[in-house]
Write a structure and sequence with these properties.
Chain lengths: 324, 327
């Protein structure tokens, strides 16, 4: 089977979505030249009317997409850097997200926002290294963070077809990931369904995005002493609470690794919900960015500010220490 | 050090040459892996930073951009500490916390490069307004690209600056492209027309000629000091190199071969260099090489920051954030 990269999977998902539905179009900065590679080949195949290079006017073109969606189009916006989500936060959360309810259900806003290269880009420093997925989950905008090429394909396809706004985070640290893939088997992955990457019996590790790879690696490292289940929610909002409850119900223990800042990050929500639903055998733990993290430039400092495998291994060891 | 004033013919040459060679040395360090994350080279645009900063006084302020090394150096920052910043060292201007896109040196009036396109114009406007209000008026120059003129926040800054007659100089470095997008495909109306719509006097100048930029910037700075408010300068320039050094690895096709072949036809270093005696020029060149050799050596010999200090300076109050792991 061919190797499919995460980036190529996103590219393929866009092309397939555009081929399947005439109302899908792509807009963003440098999307024709495909600076991110995610939009490569699209303008040649679908023409300039469906692949719009925008001026640097993020707030304007975000609401432009909302307008197009209100009357029947399915825009896909590519944001070059995660900070552009801060710039267009008002347009997404206060307009695109609210129109359906505010109009009493008269309209839908099927816009997809894709960020290829979210989180740290090592060396891009404070204003280019954010990972604000928890903000969107908090507001209630549908939020997905695929971990693998096949999921990147499947979740992006579902996002584009969804009748509501969806933000798709493609973590920088996952973009180069490649996977032996049966291309014919690529299919939409429903929003709100998690995935167990590795079965285990002692503890459930919930890992978001690129940290799924870290969790699987740590689980392998610890395999002789502890049996770790790795649960990838894939969609942070809506979250697969039933899937996770089933897992944590079996293992009784919970650790979360999440590239959000600690306060009000998705890890806190996962732990709170499991505390409400499951009688945990030991206090849970989370590995996140520090509170209020701004990623410093110098590479060692950048790394020190992100969740690490060592921290995850320590958290798992701590949580399993207390045997029932 | 060459002892000529920064606004003399020699001084301007020294600045453009310093910025050019700084960028070339920095590109080498990107290739060797000593600068992580790459840079947006300022190569080709040196006359803009040199001319504008030569029109400013030591106490005046500037804000820069993602393509900001030239602004920081031309305003007078130490090239060695700048290089140390790019290589992520504790001895860097920002103690290695900012890097290429956030280099700042408040000591020489650089309020920071800014990586968000169009974001710094309002910051410069607020700073210039406040210095007047505080009784210590200065002029602020804020640099931005042709891409930035389509950002609403910059247009809002024009309005505030004009409304409150703020002593700010808006400097648009029109290098013809925002990454891959041609300015003609991005700008409806005109660049100067945007400023004029707010009643801000605007002019277009040859951005390859340091003396032409200096003359136009001087007029604007004089006007600002006289209380006449903001001005707008469109500097027509060329970016000789990549949008970002990642383009050295991944080729993006947006400039024709023909355009690329002629791109260096008007080189600000040569334009200004031709105005000097060959011997004087050679002397400056030699001095610049010494300064940069020292800068690179200083940077690479400087210690890296301690990871335990990663979130030092996050809060001015000294508040220590909770770490990301442990209880
Ligand atoms: C608000 C914002 N949008 C997009 C980007 C990504 N980006 C960085 S530089 C750049 C192009 C900027 O073009 P221009 O303003 O002309 O400056 P130049 O790069 O030509 O110096 C883009 C799109 C950004 N950093 N900030
Ligand atoms: Mg430009």
């Amino acid at each position: 089977m061919p190797w499919l990269s995460y980036q190529k999977a996103l590219n393929r998902a866009l092309a397939d979505a555009m081929a399947a539905d005439e109302t899908v179009f792509v807009l963003g900065e440098d999307v024709r030249a495909a600076a991110s590679t995610v939009t490569a080949g699209l303008v040649g195949r679908f023409g300039p009317e469906r692949v719009l290079d925008t001026p640097l006017s993020e707030q304007g073109f975000t609401s432009f997409a909302t307008g197009a969606a209100l009357v029947g189009m399915r825009p896909v916006i590519e944001f070059q850097i995660p900070a552009l989500l801060f710039l267009s936060f008002e347009q997404i959360t206060n307009h695109a997200h609210k129109f359906s309810l505010m109009t009493g259900g008269q309209c839908r806003v099927p816009v997809t926002y894709v960020v290829p290269g979210s989180g740290s880009r090592t060396g891009w420093a404070g204003q280019h290294s954010d990972h604000p997925y928890s903000l969107f989950a908090h507001v209630g905008v549908k939020t997905v963070v695929p971990a693998t090429p096949a999921d990147a394909y499947g979740l992006l396809r579902s996002a584009v077809q969804d009748p509501d706004p969806v933000v798709v985070f493609a973590p920088s640290a996952a973009l180069a990931r490649r996977e032996d893939t049966d291309l014919a088997a690529l299919a939409p992955v429903p929003l709100g369904s998690g995935r167990v990457h590795r079965r285990g019996t002692d503890v459930t590790v919930v890992a978001v995005g690129h940290h799924v790879q870290d969790a699987v690696a740590v689980a392998d490292d610890l395999a002789e002493t502890v049996s770790v289940e790795v649960f990838d929610p894939r969609t942070l909002y809506p979250f697969d609470w039933d899937g996770l409850t089933e897992s944590v119900g079996r293992t009784g223990r919970l650790v979360v690794i999440d590239d959000s800042n600690r306060t009000c990050g998705i890890a806190g929500e996962v732990i709170a919900t499991m505390a409400e639903r499951v009688r945990l055998a030991a206090p849970p733990a989370r590995v996140t960015r520090p509170d209020g993290a701004v990623l410093p430039f110098s590479p060692e400092l950048d790394r020190a500010t992100q969740p690490s495998r060592a921290q995850l291994a320590a958290a798992v060891s701590l949580v399993v220490k207390e045997r029932p | 050090m060459t002892a000529s004033a920064v606004d003399s013919a020699v001084g301007l040459y020294r600045t453009v040459r310093l910025v050019r060679r700084f960028e070339e040395r920095a590109i080498e360090l990107v290739r060797s892996g000593d600068i992580v994350g790459g840079i947006h080279p300022y190569v080709g645009q040196e006359a803009v930073a040199a001319g504008v900063c030569a029109a400013l006084g030591a106490g005046d302020l500037v804000t820069g951009t993602h393509r900001g090394h030239g602004h920081v150096l031309a305003k007078g920052a130490d090239p060695a500490r700048m290089m140390a910043e790019l290589t992520g060292r504790e001895s860097g201007l920002n103690k290695g916390r900012g890097g290429s896109m956030h280099a700042a040196d408040f000591g020489v009036g650089v309020l920071g490069a800014n990586a968000i396109v169009g974001a710094a114009g309002a910051i410069a406007t607020g700073a210039a307004w406040a210095r007047r209000r505080l009784g210590t008026p200065v002029v602020a120059a804020t640099f931005f690209g042709d891409g930035a003129v389509n950002e609403g926040m910059l247009l809002e800054a024009f309005n505030l600056a004009a409304l409150w007659r703020v002593p700010v100089l808006f400097v648009c470095e029109n290098n013809g492209y925002a990454t891959t997008m041609r300015v003609d495909d991005a700008v409806a109306g005109s660049i100067t027309g945007r400023a004029e719509a707010f009643g801000i006097p605007a002019s277009t100048v040859d951005g390859q000629d340091p003396e032409a930029v200096l003359a136009a910037a001087r007029e604007a700075v004089d006007r600002a000091r006289a209380g006449a408010g903001p001005s707008f300068l469109e500097c027509r320039t060329r970016r000789f190199d990549a949008h970002h050094t990642f383009e050295h690895v991944v080729r993006l096709r947006y400039r024709t071969d023909e355009e690329l072949a002629g791109i260096r036809a008007r080189d600000p270093v040569d334009i200004q260099g031709a105005r000097l005696d060959a011997a004087v020029r050679a002397e400056v060149d030699e001095e610049v090489e010494r300064v940069l050799a020292n800068a690179v050596e200083f940077a690479l010999a400087s210690p890296l920051p301690d990871p335990l200090t990663a979130l030092d300076h996050l809060y001015a109050s000294g508040l220590r954030p909770r770490p990301g792991s442990g209880v």
